[in-house]
Structure formats: structure tokens, C-alpha cells
Amino acid sequence: MKSIQIEDDLYHFIASQTQDIGESASDILRRLVMPESLLNTAQDNSVKETKVYTIDSDVSDVQSTEPTCQASAVFAELEGQQLQAIPKMVERWLLVLSIIHKHHSQQFSKVLSMSGRNRTYFATDKDTLLATGSSTNPKNVPDSVYWVITNNNTAKKINMLKGVAEQVGFNLSEVEELIKIFAPELI
């Protein structure tokens, strides 16, 4: 897989062209710009690579870089979840964290640095979080090795979610959109 850096307006246009939940940016661009004859050939000869590249418009060479933020994939998956139907904020919050982890598994380890005055917020085991306070109520982030403290009010959960989104690479407008999806009744 290769990655290119694009301006925000172009990114938002591409994301707005999504037709199916979970459709990747590559699928959207392929549909929009590739002639049908090339599309069939590309699918037949496709070889998936795991390296990620950035093409800088000022430089003609290709440079390896960190994985790109997949905010649009997170949003697409969240749309199908009907979050407002989940009455317990902690369950809703764990689901959102799980989806972010699913699409940003390499960057998600950065959340381990998040902490408050007296508490560690994330760890890779329950005991680490229990050791930071008597009422942390740690829970596993579903489908991950990460644990998070859950004994916080909704405002604190929102702040922690903002921090997680920033850690994995969401830009400011994407962070705001994530919070609107997570807790529209509080915005």
C-alpha cells in the first residue's frame, strides 16, 4: 500500500464520495479516476505491499513514512454502529476505542503515554491500572491488548477520546467530528 499527502479539501472531497460503509480511499479513487479497462487489469495484477510512502510535490523521489491516519475508515465503521442506541456511555466509549484501534493498531500504542495527575489511563494489563488507584475500574478495549480506566464521567471520557484521536493522527476537524459522533447529545 502506498500513501500520498493531500490537502484537507481534497481529502474531504474523496471521503464525501463514499458509497458503501467501509469503502477505502483507494476504492473511491479507483472508481472515480480509473477507466474500466484499467480497473480490471489492475485488479487481476494487484500485489499488496505493506510499505507506506509519501510523495512530496516539491520532491520527485518517494520517501518511506509512518502509517497514515485512517479517520475516514473509522467514521465509516462508526456510522453503521448506531451509537446512540447504546445507552451506557462506557460501552459506547469502549466500542469507539475498539474501532480506532482496529484502524490504527500500529499508532495505538501511543496512548500508553496518556495519564492524569495520579492515574495512568491506558496499559497493556489490568493490574497496571489497578495499581494507580482504588476505583479505576479497568476494562479491556475490545479486540485489543489494551486496557483503559473507565471510572470517569462522560466529559473526561470525551477528553480522553480526543487525546486518543490526536495520538493516532486525527486532525482537529476529525477530532471534532469523532466527538460529535460519540456524544452528539452533549455537543
Structure, explained:
The structure is a single chain. This protein is mainly α and 187 residues long. The protein folds into 2 domains: 8-64, no CATH class; 71-186, Replication modulator SeqA, C-terminal DNA-binding domain (Up-down Bundle), CATH 1.20.1380.10. Helices cover 44% and strands 7% of the residues. The strands form 2 sheets. The protein has a 3-stranded antiparallel sheet. Strands 1-2 form a two-stranded antiparallel ribbon. A hairpin with a 6-residue loop joins strand 4 (138-140) and strand 5. 20% of the residues are buried.
In short:
This protein has helices spanning 8-16, 25-33, 36-44, 71-79, 89-103, 126-130, 154-168, 172-182; strands spanning 53-55, 62-64, 122-123, 138-140, 147-149. The chain has 187 residues and is mainly α. Helix 4 crosses helix 5 (89-103), helix 5 packs parallel to helix 7 (154-168) and helix 7 packs antiparallel against helix 8.
CATH homologous superfamily descriptor of the largest domain: Replication modulator SeqA, C-terminal DNA-binding domain
Number of DSSP helical runs: 8
The strand line-up of the biggest sheet is 3-5-4
User: Beta-sheet strand percentage?
Assistant: 5-15%
Task: Name the average pLDDT.
Answer: 80
CATH architecture annotation name of the largest domain: Up-down Bundle
- The residue fraction in helices comes out at 40-55%
Characterize the main sheet.
3 strands, antiparallel
Quick one: how many beta strands?
5
Query: What fold name stands as the CATH topology of the largest domain?
Result: Replication modulator SeqA, C-terminal DNA-binding domain
N- and C-termini, Cα separation: 37 Å
* CATH level 1 class label of the largest domain: Mainly Alpha
Q: Estimate nothing, just give the exact number of structural domains.
A: 2
Shape: elongated
pLDDT < 50 runs, ≥5 residues = 44-65
Helix-strand category: mainly alpha
Q: What integer value in Å does the Rg equal? A: 19 Å
Could you spell the SSE succession in H and E letters?
HHHEEHHEHEEHH
GO molecular function: DNA binding
Pfam family, one: SeqA_N
Subcellular location: Cytoplasm
Family: Belongs to the SeqA family.
